[in-house]
Amino acid sequence: MGSTTELGFGWVTPILSYLMACVGAALGLRCMVRAQAATGRRRLRWLASAAVAIGTGIWTMHFIAMLGFSISGTAIRYDTFLTVVSLLVSIGMVGIGVLAVGYGRSRRRSVVLGGLITGIGVAAMHYIGMNAMRISGTVHYDARMVAVSVVIAIVAATAALHSALTVSSPIAAVGASLIMGVAVSAMHYTGMAAARVDVVANGAAPNGTSGTDFIVPMTVMLGSYLFLASAFVALSLTAQEGSGSAAAGRQRVRTLSGAGPGGLSPVPTDPAQHR
What is the pLDDT of residue 80? Predict the structure, then answer.
């Protein structure tokens, strides 16, 4: 059995992966808040943005952490197709959960259903990503640890969706995203602890793409997207904020111009008429 470690690059990858999970969660929460204040296609766009943000953040966290994963006695390569599939599964399953919450009639039922779907999707993303590994040996799993990791994923997803409906202030959203980062990281490292690796001595070098050739560019691009999208969402206004600002602006214009309540300026009178 080959010995494994998640600290192949020290604490750099665990810390960076945690930060990416927090950024994705924070961005997704803010998009969900925007969706609640929107209607029609605007709501759908905000919900889609939330799904992409959360799904991308979780996937980026997972594969940055995987860069620090090493196995004694074998190199690690990745199947490109399965790696991309894991990203799409993450975004797609999170999207289903987000839509269930965004359009559900019963808040409690929608959060439970959305959390279940999203959590299973996150766990599926993790194990599809693990299955994308190519090593000189085989990987098998402790069933009990796998079950624990799936439960953590479901609980974390449910908590995230519940927070999206109850958290509105930026400070509370930051706190919720930090907690979500811990939950997502806990799911990942629990899933990694479930892995058992049997290395073939002097086995053939594994086929596939190295982490630095494929995963690093992907995580850099997706990480850049998360930070840029976060800046955009932070600078955008909710529907209520926008309508409130517009109304306040019209009122200021009427006040400065001396307009009456109806928006029309009063007719000036001739002082000579009052002599």
Answer: 86
Backbone φ and ψ of 46, nearest 5°: -65, -40
Element at 171 (helix H, strand E): helix 170-193
* 139 three-state secondary structure: strand
**Rounded distance between C-alpha atoms, residue 98 and residue 164, angstroms:** 10
What is the pLDDT at residue 237?
A: 53
Under DSSP, the state recorded for 214 is I
Tens digits of per-residue pLDDT, 131-182? 988 888 888 889 999 999 999 989 988 887 887 777 767 777 778 888 888 8
pTM: predicted TM-score of the whole model, two decimal places: 0.76
Query: Which DSSP state fits 211?
Result: I
Within a 10 A sphere around the Cβ of 134, how many other Cβ atoms? Answer: 17
The 8-class DSSP code of residue 275 comes to -
| Structural contact between residues 136 and 71, judged by C-beta atoms closer than 8 angstroms | no
Q: Could you give the CA distance from residue 135 to residue 246 in angstroms, rounded to a whole number?
A: 60
DSSP state string for 56-117: HHHHHHHHHHHHT-EETTB--EE-HHHHHHHHHHHHHHHHHHHHHHHH-SSHHHHHHHHHHH
For residue 140, give Cα distances in angstroms to 43, 56, 136, 198.
43, 26, 13, 8
**Containing H/E element for 133?**
strand 133-134
Task: Give the gyration radius of the chain's Cα atoms.
Answer: 25
Cβ contacts of 193 within 8 Å, gap of 6 or more? 142, 145
For residues 120 and 178, give the distance between their C-alpha atoms in angstroms, rounded to a whole number: 21
Helix (H) or strand (E) holding 186: helix 170-193
